[in-house]
Amino acid sequence: MPLSDDNIDKLKISMSDRYDVAAKFLDLENLYHDKNLNKSGIRLPLNKPNVMTAILNIIIENIPEIEGMSLKNNILYDLNRFSEHVSRFANLKTLDLSDNKLNHLNYVDSFSKIEELQLKKNPVAESPSDLTYVSMVRKTFPNLLKLDGVILPPLISFDLGTTTELPPTLGNVFIVPEAKEIVIKFVNEYFGIFDSSDRQKLIGAYHENAVFSMSAFNRNDSNRRDNTHHDYGGLSAYFLCSRNQQRLQDPIKRHQQLQVGHHSIVSLLSSLPATTHDMNSFVVDVSAAETSVLYFTLTGVFKETESKAKYPQMRSFSRVFVCIPHGGGIVIANEEWTITNTSAESIKKFFKSPAPTPSPSPVLGSPPNISGPSVKTNELSLEQKQVMVQKFAQDSKMNLVFSEQCLSEQGWNYKKAADTFTRMHAEAKIPPEAFQ
Questions:
Q1: Using CA atoms, how far apart are residues 214 and 132, in angstroms rounded to an integer?
Q2: Tell me, what's the pLDDT at 219?
Q3: Cβ-based neighbours of 420, under 8 Å, separated by 6 or more
Q4: Are residues 238 and 247 in contact, defined by beta-carbon separation less than 8 angstroms?
């Protein structure tokens, strides 16, 4: 309901008293407790749409030259009303949003001329690190010079003179030809079962002591407000079992979210929404392929098939598989699954043409028989090395320190490290503290 004419007149008087003509600055801090308005029995919470709309209209009609404004301490949860009038605040350079309830910076990203910003005492300012916080804010306000009273260092930029295009992505990458056949067969069979009505059949795909973790997060996609046909959030089913370390700070809870053992893993997978994967979206990157281990990353897109939404909810994912030979086939020893909402680009690109029909067979591929060179140390990421250390510690029963030392000394060649361990253990050359 719009404010009454009497209330608007009194609000104009109060705003006139709060406006610094010389500085072109309007101070609306803690408007609800404005003394002049309160004396007249008027209390105007700025977080109410009708109050915010009235104030914006007054500014546009009476002080269009405004260059600075404080909305401090008004219990603001968002600034969506600004988005309707953003073009009218082209000269705004200073904005104080501190001591509110803002969880995001949506709707104010068009204030491109903002040079000084106050955000402290807002949830959005509670970033794990100062660097992450500053980087996030600068993406929204590229001309920002001062944040929360601190002068920011200048942005590093490069004058290349000419337009440079990034090289095209390589798509699927396999270290040796033998790995391609194994991985493709595995992927077809695994996701044939995963997309079926009975994921319990996946129990044969995991080692009995396999380890599984999931991390879910919302993609910051600037195009998401322009597309109303897909759910860009709605990841609650995945957040329940997510170990996203930026969201989950408690180390005990992180450990509880780690799934150990094939029964625990398949039980979790069976509890998640039913899916259909678009295999045309799949990209495979094999990082290590030896007779003792097969390490690859799979990225792609899937949609939830039993959603009550008018349009199927689409997700993007990355799954890192560490597989080992077992019983005439291969099984998953370790998996890390990252999931997020799908980008607008992926929505337009995938699920447009029929994907190959995966085999429903629960029997997984043959063990790798690969004679190619082992992966060099500098080709392994820190994450990959950590996975290898955990697997080696599990197999050898040594602690992580000695397991990492053994792998490092053997050039991160898992087979060579295992052979060395077996030999030295038989010769009683491994100290007792290695097993503590």
A1: 22
A2: 66
A3: 406, 409, 410
A4: no
Which residues, given as ranges, of the chain have pLDDT below 70?
1, 83-84, 86-87, 107-112, 127-131, 156-164, 166, 169, 219-234, 245-249, 307-312, 352-380, 383
CA gap 241, 232 in Å, rounded: 19
Instruction: Report d(CA 87, CA 111) in Å as an integer.
Output: 9
Looking at residue 220, its pLDDT comes to 54
Q: Which helix (H) or strand (E) holds 394?
A: helix 382-396
Do residues 49 and 107 lie in contact, with contact meaning Cβ atoms separated by under 8 Å?
no
Cα–Cα distance measured from residue 121 to residue 381, given in angstroms and rounded to the nearest whole number: 37
Phi and psi for 343 in degrees, rounded to 5? -70, 160
CA neighbor of 99 nearest in space, from 74, 129, 69, 126: 74
The distance from CA 102 to its chain's CA centroid, rounded to whole angstroms, is 19
User: What amino acid occupies position 97?
Assistant: L
CA distance 297 to 382: 15
Instruction: Specify the pLDDT at position 161.
Output: 55
Please count the CA atoms within 13 angstroms of the CA of 302 that sit on its side-chain side. 22
pLDDT at 378 (0 to 100): 45
Q: Rounded to whole angstroms, what are the CA distances from 156 to 109, 129, 152, 159, 164? A: 21, 20, 12, 10, 17
- C-alpha 251/C-alpha 260 separation (Å) is 16
- Please tell me the predicted confidence (pLDDT) of residue 370: 31
Type and span of the H or E element at 300: strand 294-304
Dihedral Cα 249, 252, 254, 260, nearest 10 deg: 170
* Cα dihedral 414→416→420→422 (10° resolution): 60
Cβ atoms 72, 100 nearer than 8 A: yes
Read off the pLDDT of residues 301-328 as tens digits, 9 standing for 90 and up.
998 887 655 556 788 999 999 999 887 7
| Strand arrangement, sheet containing 259-260 | 259-260, 206-217, 329-341, 313-326, 294-304, 275-289
CA dist., res. 180 & res. 188, Å (int):
12
Distance (Å) of CA 383 to CA 27, 140, 380: 50, 31, 8
Output the DSSP codes for 214-239: EEEE----TTGGG--SS-S---HHHH
Classify 286 as helix, strand or coil: strand
Using CA atoms, how far apart are residues 17 and 373, in angstroms rounded to an integer?
Answer: 77
Q: What is the DSSP letter of 157?
A: -
- Altogether, the residues listed in the chain come to a count of 436
